[in-house]
């Protein structure tokens, strides 16, 4: 066992497995202590290479990430530059623990743990989550060295004792939690003997617990005069005598009954050996205070002068959540928000959408129209998607997607192959699924102006414009498009008004008198019926309806639907 100080302000660590919170806490502690260099030299994360960005005060730093290096405690100890291994893991096999202990002793190295939260040298270096949050570290005055060496089996109780010691002394110089496994890599007496050789440590506080015989090695060291500094000790677990049989407590070495020594016996042995041992845990704080005050009165120590630690910058996300700051957004979305506990579509939480059994049509109404439309409207949207999902392999979009797939391209490239080949979704236009918006636009304009079907069609003819939504390469007056019939039937049964659809049918009647293939097609049916949906639902103002028709919402419905078929 090393006989001096384990850590200093220049000590650096390799952190095995990337865990953001404890690493960031180590770096925050470094900044709090005024270290010039971060204590985390690198992160060992199997399968990863590169850098991990973390904060050192207000500065963002990049810490190297290595995929391999010291992948076990033993291989870490065998590295010549590594002097201390802190093993956080619990339940290390006893045979492995014994090998680690033997190797460490033979090579003058130190093992802290297994099952430890680590250790800390106040104002210099800390391991992992030792001492907890930054608020607790500041409250315990661990940002600067004190005069007390502390060692415990329990990590949780260590945090409690750091606080206790800070209240009644000038604070911790070094604190170690050796861990609660049956075979700890280093013992209570190992660290107390070390503290005895560190000039800055003026007194020692020890917290033991029932189970094992580790405390008796400390008793022997006290009896042999190896420790010449005041030792204040307490062994917890006085309830052990109440159990008639052996009981396993939280730590592997903490058992009651059987051959295990009671906490009372250990406390008495320590008292007989010269340690200051109070009569109860409640009196522990007072005993520590009294021992420290005697040192001060005797002139053996001068309380460390208090300093003001620097302010640790608060993470923006934490500050926003607590309402301390407000930050301007870089991108504003009026349809969705993922800043809360769950994403919201137009203000509706995702869980609510699922719990209410809403469908794709409802999601489209929220994301496209920013409101919850009545169920008959969202059902109509779903029917449009189903009916337009595919129309065979010979239409231009499907043909080009197939050709692209046969060329060996990936699925996404096939779907949007129009980038270089004028194919795929970019072929959706006036002659292939892209006439919905134009049909809605022209039908609405003609109906709102009060034009008769004759006036409307003839005015379009004079302008040299085909009537959008009218005409089909295959369908005829005596062989109507089944999709159009299904949409019209649904609308007549569910919509409060179908005035635009009826106007489109009147236009069809006139165009069929000119040619048998000038039927109302699916683009015209969807375009006119969407006008009825927008106007009849009572949920849109006239300017909103004009905007929806103008900016191309409705062609988006065909693009969404046909993507299903193109992917298939």
Structure write-up:
- With 568 residues, this protein is of the alpha/beta class.
- 43% of the residues lie in helices and 12% in strands.
- The chain has 23 helices and 17 strands.
- The chain has a six-stranded mixed sheet with strand order 8-7-10-9-11-12, with helices on both faces.
- Helix 13 runs antiparallel to helix 19 and helix 13 crosses helix 23 (553-567).
- The longest helix has 15 residues, at 522-536.
- It is elongated and about 120 Å long.
- Residues 254-260, 418-425 and 427-433 have low confidence and may be disordered.
Q: What form results from the Cα inertia axes?
A: elongated
Distance between the termini: 69 Å
Secondary structure tally, helices: 23
Provide the helix percentage.
40-55%
Largest sheet: 6 strands, mixed
Radius of gyration (CA) equals 39 Å
The number of E-state strands comes to 17
Give the spatial strand order of the biggest sheet: 8-7-10-9-11-12
Instruction: Describe the oligomeric state of these chains in a short phrase.
Output: single chain
Mean pLDDT: 88
**Structural class, judged by helices and strands?**
alpha/beta
Low-confidence parts lasting 5 or more residues at pLDDT below 50?
A: 254-260, 418-425, 427-433
Strand content: 5-15%
